[in-house]
UniProtKB/TrEMBL annotation:
<dbReference type="InterPro" id="IPR049730">
    <property type="entry name" value="SNF2/RAD54-like_C"/>
</dbReference>
<feature type="region of interest" description="Disordered">
    <location>
        <begin position="711"/>
        <end position="757"/>
    </location>
</feature>
<dbReference type="InterPro" id="IPR001650">
    <property type="entry name" value="Helicase_C-like"/>
</dbReference>
<dbReference type="InterPro" id="IPR014001">
    <property type="entry name" value="Helicase_ATP-bd"/>
</dbReference>
<dbReference type="GO" id="GO:0031297">
    <property type="term" value="P:replication fork processing"/>
</dbReference>
<feature type="domain" description="Helicase ATP-binding">
    <location>
        <begin position="233"/>
        <end position="397"/>
    </location>
</feature>
<feature type="domain" description="Helicase C-terminal">
    <location>
        <begin position="561"/>
        <end position="723"/>
    </location>
</feature>
<feature type="compositionally biased region" description="Polar residues">
    <location>
        <begin position="711"/>
        <end position="731"/>
    </location>
</feature>
<dbReference type="Pfam" id="PF00176">
    <property type="entry name" value="SNF2-rel_dom"/>
</dbReference>
<dbReference type="GO" id="GO:0006281">
    <property type="term" value="P:DNA repair"/>
</dbReference>
<keyword id="KW-0378">Hydrolase</keyword>
<dbReference type="InterPro" id="IPR038718">
    <property type="entry name" value="SNF2-like_sf"/>
</dbReference>
<protein>
    <recommendedName>
        <fullName>Helicase ATP-binding domain-containing protein</fullName>
    </recommendedName>
</protein>
<dbReference type="InterPro" id="IPR000330">
    <property type="entry name" value="SNF2_N"/>
</dbReference>
<dbReference type="InterPro" id="IPR027417">
    <property type="entry name" value="P-loop_NTPase"/>
</dbReference>
<dbReference type="GO" id="GO:0016787">
    <property type="term" value="F:hydrolase activity"/>
</dbReference>
<dbReference type="GO" id="GO:0005524">
    <property type="term" value="F:ATP binding"/>
</dbReference>
Amino acid sequence: MPLKVNVKRKDAKFKGDKPKYNVVVSGPRETFTPAICRSLELNGMGPFMDEDGLVVWSSMPQIGGAPYYLAHLLAYKHKATIHPNCKKQAMSVINRRDPRDGIDHILGSQGAIPAGRMSLNVIASSTDFAANCDEADTERREFLEAAGWLPIKNMNSKIAQKLGTQPYRTRDPFIASNLEPFMSPGAKNLLKEKLATAGKNIKASKSHTAEGAIEVPAPEGLGFFPFQLGGITMAVNSPGGTLIADDMGLGKTMQGIGIINATPKAEKILIISQANMRIKWGREIEKWKTNSALTVGLAESSTFPDANVCVINYDILQKNIDAMRAIKWDLIICDEAHNMKNPEAQRTQAVLGDLLDMDGSKALPLSDIGKYVHLTGTPKPNRIDELWPLISSTRPDIWGSGPEDFQIFKNRYCPPILIKREMKSRFKGGKPREMIIPMPGKPIREMELQLRLRGSGSFIRRMKRDNPDLPPKFRTPLEIPVKLSKAEKEELRSVEFDLAALMERTGSVEVKEGRTLQAGAVINQITRLDPDTPQFHEMARVRRNLGMLKAPHCAKFIIDELEAEKDFALENRTKTVVFAHHKDVIKIIHAEAEKRMKGAFLVYDGSVGSAKKKQDIVDRFQADDKIRGLIISLAGNSGITLTQSARMRVVEPDWSPSNMIQIEDRIWRIGQEKNVDIGYMSVAGTLDARIGMAIADKMETDERSVNSITFRHNAPSQKASMEVDQSSGSRARSEMPLVLESDENQGDPQPALPLFE
């Protein structure tokens, strides 16, 4: 009995809603081989049922067109049968689309069928794959978009004659392979070549060695790490821009400067950084540059420097926009590029232009050799669609550009959920109006996204955990062993009640005791709150009250740890970095530290004015043995190195996991020589403790979405197991390394690609 494939449809529920589709694959357990399970997972499916020898896999219902392509692909590669309920529609969309209807049909017109109405056919040029389609053929257009293909822009008569009035294209071999059953022999040969190249790129994107690296100039006595040479090489050789997404602390700044040194023709270079990193960038470029003719200047407020290398911070881009647009740049390096995650933000549009405009207008001009290089340790800050500004600006030939391509990307990797809301009129006596609001959906097809990113030859991400030169990091929940007074217990109960009530009002989230899952739902809801709403300000009040309650108890715990080491030899002592969110909480912790260890703690928060003062605090913490602790806020979440500490205590975790990963990696980075201990402090048995665990769990999940190339689902007879790392309290899944296998029976052009992590 072969596999059966069915594509199911859920009709729209209200005006403005869109139909949703999901794919169901069923069959005997023995038919679900590892190769088939990998293929299904790549296409966003997961196991749904395994009973009495029958296995069922399903995808989530989602908008974006019926994924009939998957039915054809499984039939072609694995001899699956298409369910009768959807076979007619699945065959109709790929067959010849006879346009003779209406008066032509009545008169018996025998005109030739246009290319876009012929049976689906995929051909290839030297770089791209193309599929025939007409602009008016809505069903085929939805079919192609559901497979991840992009409409061809800037049509001409020659293309229209050969492929129809609205053909589709892709340069990505993983997206192209979704339409492999309809490929010409030439297209299949190109697919084979591109997959082989993608395999090499994937290995290079994970490599910590300098294998195949170019020679990069460096000043005498200085040199780049082998893995940094690999990143520089990829950026120089990329056919477009590059996204260097190495883990925090692996020296992305040095790779950016190495790219400058390795690009001798680059004479006009723009560096965009955060304000606290502007001085450091200028200092490091002067130290590492090998072209003595390059001058370096720092932008100040609305004064833009007349220099070869101009360093400017995101905050003052708008003040200098005319000066920057007057220059054609050979290289634009955007440090902490996740600052441009929102395509509608002024800073994003100042650099990349209007990404939601069809023409992408007003991007900074590039020279003939110009390219973008984006540096970030958190390429996906909170949601997958936040990747779009970075990948579409570096490789529009792969990811596309403009609102239509952005929607295709979202439908494939984070399909939005459409919600109908009734909005009250702002005018007295006015009628309420209905609005359709697209809410961010859950991420799907993360494995395919990983392959596309890494296989592009323009994306590189190495993790510190894989770097043999870095010690391990342990993430641990720390429940504070304190006895709360009656008044404190009452205050804590009040805070928890406020939080639970607020979440239930804003997001229909029920918060139950003992359930990390519900706490995780709370985190998801909080990160979606609009900062301008009353709910957001109420949440800020609740969080501050909780932090104020915890602060003195956490301070005592932290200082006790430090005082326990006072008789240790200097090399055995460990400085502590403390993270807190609110200024009032920071003041309480610092005041407690001053009582017992006067002058031993520094503070790095938003109240520290200039970039020079901030750098002085960091330098003193790193160099002065008398300094035992540093209290930081979100102001210190990027760009600073605190490797003299191997211990961090988180008093108030930020509820954005990506921010917490940034904070943790201030001490876990190149230069760290000790095992790193990250402790999340909470009051035992409270919602605070459960939310802390949920944040840690969500960090693990988010790290997998852009870090790991591993399958979560094996064959049904070899179910993945869950293990707990006792040292860190984090979950680790036994996962299967990715191997894209060839199908000898089908003459599949896809070679084996061993993409081991």
